């Protein structure tokens, strides 16, 4: 997540206009979300495309930063534009600014992903699904109520589908999802997840884990659902990594809660592979509650 936020403008008011964009991406070709010098990242490519469209450097704020290799089906960002920049998007009158931004950004992303990264590039790895003026008080990061991730696990070669290998963990040992759910249930609620994340200096590790469960589908593949008000760095992969040890019989379900209480990381703190992890959805309150939610979240984080 971004560490610093610009002052929130009022959408439609005198100053900047806040624009919300909904997007998805294949995280495989990227070194995570956040801009990093010399590395290809989702944020870097998106901001390069926006610069082509808006004609100046811009910075986006994201609902939740994803690690290298992690995908998103329901990511949300916001960007602040001047009224002149917004109206200029529809110059020619063929499309409203929101539609024009989405169309132009798709084209710019194709240029960035193809032209900057070799013949063929990675066209289509980032897709903009919606763009438009955000309600007053909206903040992609701080207004969010919760984020939900999924994680696919195929435990045994008979379940390994080569067509889905880029989205599924191929786990050699059989897993007991009932044991995994028993261990996961003990972590629900408002807790200090220091043992299940890599703390950032000055950042809190207290989060509300709202859902953590494993369901085996008709195809035999286990799908984990992990939902919280927000996540610390590497938290989801660490939670799944711990549950895999329980499901394999290497640890008891109680072990996951014991580690939570101990608040320490050691040789058993294993991160699950990033490629099966997908940010599925980010939820926001009703329009009239966006600003209050953002202020409450900022107070908690600070």
Keywords:
302 residues; alpha+beta; ten-stranded mixed beta sheet; 7 helices; globular; disordered N terminus
What is the N-to-C order of secondary-structure elements (H for helix, E for strand)? Answer: EHEEHHEEEHEEEHHEH
The helix content, as a percent range, equals: 25-40%
Strand tally, please?
Answer: 10
What ranges have pLDDT less than 50 throughout 5 or more consecutive residues? 1-10
Rounded to an integer in angstroms, the radius of gyration calculated over CA atoms is 20 Å
Task: Give the overall silhouette.
Answer: globular
Average of pLDDT: 91
How do the helices and strands line up, and which of them pair or pack?
Elements: E1 17-25, H1 42-54, E2 61-62, E3 71-81, H2 83-88, H3 97-115, E4 126-133, E5 146-155, E6 168-171, H4 177-185, E7 189-192, E8 206-216, E9 222-228, H5 235-247, H6 253-262, E10 277-283, H7 290-301
Parallel strand pairs: 3-10, 5-6
Antiparallel strand pairs: 1-3, 1-4, 2-3, 5-9, 5-10, 7-8, 8-9
């Amino acid at each position: 997540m971004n560490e610093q936020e610009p002052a929130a403008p009022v959408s439609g008011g005198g100053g900047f206009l806040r624009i919300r964009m909904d997007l998805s991406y294949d995280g495989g070709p990227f070194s995570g979300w956040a801009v990093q010098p010399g590395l290809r990242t989702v944020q870097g490519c998106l901001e390069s495309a926006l610069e082509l469209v808006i004609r100046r450097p811009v910075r986006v704020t994201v609902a939740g930063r994803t690690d290298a290799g992690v995908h998103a089906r329901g990511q949300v960002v916001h960007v602040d534009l001047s009224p002149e920049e917004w109206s200029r998007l529809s110059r020619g009158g063929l499309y409203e600014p929101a539609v024009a931004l989405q169309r132009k950004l798709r084209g710019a992303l194709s240029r960035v992903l193809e032209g900057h990264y070799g013949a063929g590039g990675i066209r289509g790895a980032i897709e903009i699904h919606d763009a438009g003026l955000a309600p007053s008080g909206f903040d992609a990061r701080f207004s969010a109520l919760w984020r939900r991730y999924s994680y696919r696990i195929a435990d045994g070669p008979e379940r390994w589908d080569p067509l889905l290998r880029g989205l599924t963990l191929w786990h050699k040992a059989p897993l007991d999802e009932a044991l995994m759910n028993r261990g996961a249930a003990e972590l629900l609620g408002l807790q200090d997840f220091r043992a299940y994340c890599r703390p950032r200096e000055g950042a809190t590790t207290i989060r509300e884990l709202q859902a953590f469960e494993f369901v085996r589908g008709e195809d035999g593949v286990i799908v984990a659902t992990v939902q919280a008000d927000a996540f610390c760095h590497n938290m989801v992969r660490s939670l799944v990594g711990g549950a895999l040890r329980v499901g394999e019989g290497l640890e008891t379900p109680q072990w996951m809660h014991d580690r939570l209480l101990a608040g320490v990381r050691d040789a058993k703190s294993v991160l699950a592979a990033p490629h099966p992890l997908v940010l599925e959805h980010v939820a926001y309150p009703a329009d009239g509650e966006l600003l209050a939610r953002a202020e409450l979240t900022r107070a908690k984080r600070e």
